[in-house]
């Protein structure tokens, strides 16, 4: 949960720059003030794919001071 629509969109953009596709969701898709990013994981993702995504989440979080 990132709560702010602009923050969620920036987070999603930064993740994409690193090669990980996530989608920023904000009002009216989710309640006002509950903006977030969503991922979809499938059986086609490897452990390495998931480890890479988790690493990128951590990097973006740190870069954005969250």
Tally of strands:
2
The CATH class is identified as: Alpha Beta
Strand content: 5-15%
Q: In DSSP terms, counting alpha (H) and pi (I) runs of 4 or more, how many helices?
A: 2
What best-fitting shape do the alpha-carbon axes yield? globular
User: What is the oligomer described by this structure?
Assistant: single chain
Into which percent range does the helicity of residues fall? 40-55%
CATH topology: Aspartate Aminotransferase, domain 1
Distance between the termini: 11 Å
Please, could you describe this protein's structure?
The relative contact order is 0.23. Helices cover 47% and strands 9% of the residues. The mean pLDDT is 96. It has helices at 5-17, 47-64; strands at 23-25, 36-38. By secondary structure, it is mainly alpha-helical. The N and C termini lie close together (11 Å). It has a single domain, classed as Alpha-Beta Complex (Aspartate Aminotransferase, domain 1), CATH 3.90.1150. A two-stranded antiparallel sheet has the order 1-2.
Annotation keywords:
two-stranded antiparallel ribbon; Aspartate Aminotransferase, domain 1; 47% helix; 2 strands; 66 residues; 2 helices; mainly alpha
Provide the fold topology.
Layout: H1 5-17, E1 23-25, E2 36-38, H2 47-64
Antiparallel strand pairs: 1-2
Quick recap:
With 66 residues, the chain is mainly α. The protein has 2 helices and 2 strands, in the order αββα.
